[in-house]
Amino acid sequence: MKAFEQVINIKDKLKGVSAKLGMNQIFTIGMGKKLYEELINNPVDSRPYKVYTALLTQQDIVGEVPPQVTILENTLGNIEWIYGSTGSYRAILPGVFLEDKTYFSITTSFYSLLPAGGHTLLPLLITRLDNDSIEVQSFYQIDPFEGRDGALYFTPIEIRVYN
Prior knowledge:
single chain; 163 residues; alpha+beta; 2 domains; 4-stranded antiparallel β-sheet; 3 helices
């Protein structure tokens, strides 16, 4: 719920205050200026989950390099990305990814830097490993059992942990 909606809800609950007073005066009288300012300056996120939304890029075909991350939204915490093995990258945040509370989604990468030129879609897999980590894997299209580094290019990922 956005701060404005909170203000309206609280305003509606204040009975016996003249409707002719301005909103600032109503809140100063009804709930105190300090609480009013707190609601305005620090809106409460009323979603039933914390979220991590980002774009992952890992274009190094050789080398053990974790993806670069462009964070779009993060209310979850400071996720550390590490390189696991060829085509495998892990999101680490201890004790957060609970089995019955975690939802995640990743979009298939469009990879355009193939040795022979051309374009292809490379399959991606996202898996919860335990309460501490989630794994993202990228594969060759021809052999889905062979990992592929360098296949993430601004690849959208979203992780939600419900309350």
